[in-house]
Design brief:
This protein is mainly alpha-helical. It contains 5 helices and 2 strands. The protein has a two-stranded antiparallel sheet. It is elongated, with a radius of gyration of 18 Å. Pfam families: GntR. Keywords: DNA-binding, Transcription, Transcription regulation.
Length: about 120
């Protein structure tokens, strides 16, 4: 995981998204332990409260859970929850805008599909 301290996106969100990416790629399998808050703060030279805030976002979404005295673990079903969350974000951030612009330009859905397929071939 890499943090960009110059980016406008808050560090705690970058921590949460980095853990999400690790879960989606299999670096943190379901029911496995993730690094501790101390490890995050030492490795990335950030305040432990910042790391905790990012992790708590995922706890609130039931992506990870705390075992008291042991650490934080990836929840069962986290991958499917994250895939659904990211698919919804993808639709809202990209597809809906693409469709709006296509309508303004008079591009049909078949033409959009052909353009997307062309992009996958390249």
């Amino acid at each position: 995981m890499k943090l960009n301290l110059d980016q406008e996106k808050p560090i705690f969100i970058q921590i949460a998204e980095g853990i999400e990416d690790g879960i989606l790629t299999g670096a943190f399998p379901e029911e496995s332990q993730i690094p501790s808050i101390t490890e995050f703060s030492v490795n990335y030279k950030i305040n432990p409260a910042t790391a905790l805030k990012g992790i708590n976002l995922l706890v609130d979404e039931a992506i990870i859970f705390k075992k008291r005295g042991v650490g934080m673990f990836v929840a069962q079903g986290a991958v499917s929850k994250l895939q659904k969350k990211r698919q919804d974000q993808f639709y809202n951030n990209y597809i809906s805008r693409l469709v709006e612009e296509a309508k303004r330009l008079g591009i049909t859905s078949d033409e959009i599909i052909a353009m997307i397929e062309r992009g996958f071939v390249q």
